[in-house]
Task: structure prediction
Amino acid sequence: MPHTLAQSALQTAVNTLDTAASEAAEAATATTDAAHVTAQTSAQTIVETKNLSLWYNDFQALYDVNMQIKEHEITALIGPSGCGKSTYLKTLNRMNDLVLGCKIAGSVLIGGHNIYADSIDVTELRTRVGMVFQKPNPFPMSLYDNIAYGPRLHGTKKRSELDEIVETALRQAAIWDEVKDDLKKSALGLSGGQQQRLCIARALAVKPEILLMDEPTSALDPISTAKIEELALELKEHYSIVIVTHNMQQAKRISDATAFFLLGKLIECNNTEKLFSDPSDSRTFDYITGRFG
Result:
């Protein structure tokens, strides 16, 4: 009997330990899950468009676009040609202001402020929201002067300060080691991929918060494309990036969120993995599976 009592006591102790261990494991899992959810939802909204519509004279190019863009993420804009994705991109730094007959309704908020308000300094806005275009467009001047152009325009004159800005921007654009001995040479002598990274460095030199990229790799070879994609992934630690792309595989590779546009309307915007694996709209499914586009 004493032996039986001892066994019973031992079994009770073991059960107690098992229960405690199980509860601890569940608590740890819950903590991990909570941390994961927090990490997923902690990104702050840096850009928000509300009921955004746009016309070129009588042609309506955007219809009531409501969308949020998160800080320190890459947001990809996809859709067939003429769907409004590049038009939408250019509303974020008012590049459409340069188009004759363009008019806009609704609002674009950056940091909570409507960038179409009368009080907005458009030059200052385009410093905060840099842009890289589809075709590399280096200025016909030296590599150094390409990067120093923006800072000089904004009042930086000291050579030592400009030297630091130029080197920092070229390093951020992952091209410093390739060009550091050729800074006095013409930027037009670079390869297409190098020119595009130079243009990215030029945009970064004025310290923007947001970087807009309008099909930045469409004119590049696969190796240069891979370098730009790798660079974008590195840059999102410091900048919020919005990229227009016709390449759905590129959107899947590098973006955190993806927005699908069709005929000027935002059909769906979601986490990239969710949008491509389980789209909520049949039109999105038809596009990403190649039924049109």
In short: Confidence is low (pLDDT under 50) at residues 1-10, 12-41. Residues 70-101+116-287 form a domain with the Rossmann fold fold (CATH 3.40.50.300). The two ends are 81 Å apart (CA to CA).
